[in-house]
Write a structure and sequence with these properties.
Layout (H helix, E strand, L loop, with lengths): L6 E2 L3 E5 L5 H8 L15 H16 L4 E7 L5 E11 L22 E9 L8 H17 L3 E7 L3 H10 L2 E11 L5 E10 L3 H14 L1
Parallel strand pairs: 5-6
Antiparallel strand pairs: 1-2, 2-3, 3-4, 4-5, 6-8, 7-8
Helix pairs in contact: 1-2, 3-5
Length: 212
């Protein structure tokens, strides 16, 4: 299993998500919900408890590594993000369908960054840029991952623009992929960053943070 980690930047600190974060995360989600119609964001204390419980179950199964985002200047929790869809590539015995569970000894070969949302006050600031810089740096430079995926509802132009500004490459649309947060079935827009592309992406993010 991967050990929960804290990743600290200049603007934010990514802390391992725990049940102790219920009320702070609920408060962040309650500021202004007008931008959440295409994003799964918990609403109310009970929903936030279920949200965190689900993330912790996925962590215990080796599927995810969830964080809350703490704004360093104010000390407030302003959102959440996580690694998910973690996979280790290895030589598999005949008949095996999966590799070993990701752990500190066998870190993920590929990963996804997702389930990201921020309080209204943290949107359109440098928070998301630094969060992505911290997570991508960890994936490519600590784990040695070869690919990081990002995806969003294909209708979510705001999210797609943010992903594209990171320097991720558009891969295509997966049709009728998962239930949509606003009802119905969503198409998902897929993007990725490869290890070979990381130096350019990192320089772009660092420059963007300086401008912000």
């Amino acid at each position: 299993m991967l050990t929960p980690i804290t990743i600290r930047g200049n603007l934010v600190c990514l802390e391992p998500m725990t049940m102790d974060h219920v009320h702070d995360l609920c408060a962040a989600a309650s500021e202004d919900r007008s931008t959440y119609h295409l994003t799964k964001v918990p609403d109310g204390v009970d929903d936030t408890k279920r949200y965190i419980e689900g993330a912790l179950v996925a962590y215990s199964q080796g599927q995810e590594l969830p964080f809350v985002v703490r704004h360093l200047e104010t000390g407030r929790i302003v959102g959440t993000t996580r690694f998910l869809d973690l996979d280790v590539f290895s030589s598999l015995p005949t008949g095996a369908s999966t590799g070993p569970t990701p752990s500190d000894a066998t870190p993920p070969t590929v990963a996804e960054i997702g389930s990201t949302w921020y309080a209204a006050s943290a949107q359109r600031t440098g928070v998301n840029t630094e969060c992505k810089l911290l997570l991508l740096t960890h994936a490519f430079e600590k784990w040695g991952s070869i690919r990081v995926t990002l995806k969003t509802d294909a209708r979510n132009n705001r999210s797609r623009t943010a992903i594209e500004r990171l320097g991720a490459k558009f891969e295509g649309i997966r049709r009728a992929h998962v239930p949509a947060s606003d009802g119905g079935i969503r198409d998902s827009a897929y993007y990725s960053i490869l290890a070979a592309e990381w130096p350019v992406v990192r320089a772009n993010l660092e420059e963007k943070l300086e401008r912000d």
